[in-house]
Each structure stands twice: as C-alpha cells, then as structure tokens.
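wait is this the right file?? whatever heres the structure
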C-alpha cells in the first residue's frame, strides 16, 4: 500500500532535527502541522548568573509547507512557521526581573525551486530565505531564545529568524548496477542581521554569518526486497563576524560530517517500516584563528518509524527513537548541554478523500540532561496533527 505523505511529514517532525535540509514534498501539496511541545527539568537547570533555575520550557508552533509543480521540469517549495515559546524559572531573573521568559513571532520564509534535467539525472536547486522571522530581540526574548534553540531540546521551530540568505546547488545521479549513486554540492550565502534590540540607546552590532559549502554523496537501492539509502555529507563554513569592530574576534565553525542510513523493510501489513540511524560530528570551532578547546560534539539519533495499515484508508503511526548528544564542554549553559533520551510516538494517519489526509500524534520522552557541572532528569510531552492535501 502506498505511504501517506501526511504521515511522512508527521514522522519527519518527530525525529530529532539532525538533517540540514528538508526533503521535497510531493508535487502540488500543502501541509500544516500545529504542535505543542513541553520539557520539564526535574532539579532545574541554572539560568544566567542570578541563581534562577529553569523549571520548564514549552512551545506552540504552526509550520506550513507548500509545493507547487510548474510545468514538467520545475517544482517550487515554500515553508515557514509561527511559534510561541515560554521558559518558566523558579524565581525572578536577577537582571531581567521576571520569572517567565517568552518569545513569539513568525519564522523566516524559505523558498526553493528545483529543476529536473537529463531525464531527472541532473537536479538544479535555487533557493532563498526571506527574512520575515523575528531577529530584533529584547533581553527576555533573547534569554528565551537561548533555551528554546538548545539542540538538546529539539523543538520543532527552534529559531524564528536567521537573516536573509540564498542557496544554489546541483545534484547529479547515475545508475551503478542495481543501485543509484548521487553526488551533490551547494553554496549558501547568509546575510547579516541584528540579533538583539537597542538597549539604553546603544545599537547592538550586526551579526554576519559566514558562507557554507555543502557536499553530499548518496546511494539508494535494494537489499533483497528491502530498500536502502546511505547518505554522507560534509558542511564547510566561512568566518562569522559580529559588527565591524576589530576587537571582536571572528569565529569559524569547524567542518560538520553527517552519515544518514535508512533501511525500508518490506513488512507485511505495513505501509512503512523504516530503521534509521543519523550521526553528525561537529568538529571544533576556532576564534581569531585559534581552536577553542572542548568545542567539538557528536549527535546520534537512531530508531524505528512505522505505519501499520488498519484499513485501506487508515494507518497506525508509531515511532521509537533514542538520542545521544555529547554536548560541548567549552560552555556550561543549556545551549551546549549533553542529553541521552528515548521517545515513543503514537498516532494515526487517515485519508479523508479529495486529496486530504490527517495525521494526529502524541509523543513522550524521558532522558538525562547534563549541563556543565549539573545533571538532571528531563521529561518531554508533545502532541500535534498534520493536515495535508495533494492536488
């Protein structure tokens, strides 16, 4: 039985967001995935230097994705989101004077056009980021962002705005025996933006991220009756700068290497039965040409994603995954915290007719978070629904 694209989007939203690029939607499709996610910290996590501790972090978000085919060669994809996040402290922050931090607003709009040539053996992608997301943040909003964007928490919309950007890339595929081999490269330009609001009449300096070069190599084919995909990628970064002041040392992120392996099993009664493993290694970054010690980290996510056919139009969606992030030892904040956690997701996928599909889900997570010298149990709860339509 064919696999529901709404279920695919829902399952994709449930896995840790380790992949740098989202897969293309089906042609002429639209999907929206409102979700609520919440993390509670058993013993709390230190916030700032005033003695306050983080008790809970939560977020409502409404991502939307649209895919439109134009002619026989080109597909245009657009995606964005609206999010509202809250961080609850056990007492008022000494500097901000509040015990609840919040951040709300739209995210950037991402646009991508994909053209297919040479019988779909060559793909050309051209994309851009429209800076509609919120980047000019007040003090409490910036503090909330530091928690909500922490990789260990893996919120669905971790960052609202990252400034303007543009990407161009090529993918070349060719058969190798019974397998398909694909090689890809792309260049990403990221424009400058202001990460904090004006304070005491003094404008904060602009942040200018460095350019990024993405290199990928992948294999796709059959292992007996089962489908297998193996993808390796390498990201290379230019220098990041904060303002024009020579006293502020430029930084350069180290190369990031990723391995993504998936095995799609041909299991009786299942629309999808996928085993996956994604491992990303982030090498040390440098500041003013010198390597920063303990700034390298590893991010591992592995699990099972399934959709079992309950009827011709209804499927039972489940996902079981484990995550381990080593964290970055150069800092003691939650932004660089390590985590080991497991998650169970249960949901349904239902074809409603006229191209509409619905996929509600709930998820529970348990784990252990380590931030500097602190260690605490964490619990995560989430729920949402994907509503999609193919035209």
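ok assuming it is, sequence goes like this
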């Amino acid at each position: 039985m064919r696999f529901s694209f709404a279920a695919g989007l829902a399952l994709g939203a449930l896995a840790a967001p380790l992949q740098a690029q989202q897969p293309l939607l089906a042609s002429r499709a639209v999907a929206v995935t409102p979700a609520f996610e919440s993390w509670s910290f058993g013993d709390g996590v230190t916030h700032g230097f005033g003695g306050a501790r983080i008790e809970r972090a939560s977020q409502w978000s409404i991502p939307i994705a649209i895919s439109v085919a134009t002619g026989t060669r080109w597909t245009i994809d657009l995606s964005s989101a609206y999010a509202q996040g809250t961080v609850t402290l056990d007492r008022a922050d000494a500097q901000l004077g509040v015990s609840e931090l919040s951040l709300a607003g739209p995210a950037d709009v991402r646009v991508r056009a994909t053209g297919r040539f040479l019988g779909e053996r060559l793909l050309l992608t051209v994309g851009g980021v429209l800076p509609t997301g919120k980047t000019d943040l007040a003090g409490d909003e910036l503090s909330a962002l530091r928690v909500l964007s922490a990789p260990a928490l893996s919120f669905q919309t971790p960052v609202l705005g990252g400034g303007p950007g543009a990407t161009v890339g090529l993918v070349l595929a060719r058969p190798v025996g019974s397998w398909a081999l694909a090689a890809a490269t792309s260049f990403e330009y990221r424009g400058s933006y202001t990460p904090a609001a004006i304070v005491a009449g003094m404008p904060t300096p602009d942040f200018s991220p460095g350019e990024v070069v993405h290199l990928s190599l992948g294999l796709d084919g059959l292992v007996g009756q089962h489908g297998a995909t193996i993808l390796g990628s390498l990201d290379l970064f230019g220098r990041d700068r904060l303002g024009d002041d020579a006293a502020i040392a430029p930084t350069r992120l180290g190369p990031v290497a990723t391995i993504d392996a998936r095995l799609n099993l041909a299991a009786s009664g299942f629309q999808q039965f996928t085993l996956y493993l994604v491992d990303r290694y982030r090498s040390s970054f440098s500041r003013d040409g010198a390597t920063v010690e303990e700034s390298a980290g590893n991010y591992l996510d592995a699990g099972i994603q399934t959709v079992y056919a309950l009827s011709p139009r209804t499927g039972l969606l489940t996902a079981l995954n484990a995550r381990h992030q080593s964290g970055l030892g150069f800092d003691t904040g939650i932004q660089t915290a390590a985590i080991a956690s497991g998650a169970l997701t249960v949901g349904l996928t239902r074809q409603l007719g006229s191209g509409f599909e619905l996929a509600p889900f709930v998820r529970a997570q348990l784990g252990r978070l380590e931030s500097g010298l602190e260690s605490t149990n964490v619990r995560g709860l989430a729920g949402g629904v994907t509503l999609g339509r193919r035209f």
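The longest helix spans residues 5-14. so i think its the right one actually
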